[in-house]
Amino acid sequence: MNDLYQQVVEAFKAGDKQKAKSLLEELIKSEPNNADALFGLSMCSDTFEQTKSFLERVLAINPNYPKARERLDKLT
C-alpha cells in the first residue's frame, strides 16, 4: 500500500472524512482509473449524486467490484 493511500485509511479511521476525501482527490489526479480510490471517494461524498457517480465509475472500470455493486444497489 502506498504512503498516500495509507494516509487516506488513517484519516478515514480517525473520522476525518474531509482529509480522506482531499487525499483521494489527489490520488485520482495521478491515477484516474484507480477503482479503490474512487470507491473511497464514494464513502466520503457529501451528496447522493456524487456517491452514485463515483460508484458508477468504479463499476465502469471494474464491473466485478462487489462492494461498489452492493453499495449502489442499496442507494437505488
Any overview of this molecule?
The protein has a single domain, classed as Tetratricopeptide repeat domain (Serine Threonine Protein Phosphatase 5, Tetratricopeptide repeat, Alpha Horseshoe), CATH 1.25.40. It is built from 5 helices and no strands.
How would you summarize this macromolecular structure in one to three sentences?
This protein is an all-alpha fold and 76 residues long. It is 78% helix and 0% strand.
General shape: globular
Under CATH, the homologous superfamily reads Tetratricopeptide repeat domain
* Average pLDDT level: 93
Number of strands: 0
Largest sheet: none
| SSE succession | HHHHH
In the CATH hierarchy, the third-tier topology is known as Serine Threonine Protein Phosphatase 5, Tetratricopeptide repeat
Strand composition percent: under 5%
Count of distinct structural domains: 1
The low-confidence parts are: none
DSSP helical segment count: 5
Secondary-structure-derived class:
mainly alpha
Question: Roughly what percent helix?
Answer: over 70%
CATH class: Mainly Alpha
Q: Do you know the CATH architecture?
A: Alpha Horseshoe
Key structural traits:
mainly alpha, globular, 76 residues, 5 helices, Serine Threonine Protein Phosphatase 5, Tetratricopeptide repeat
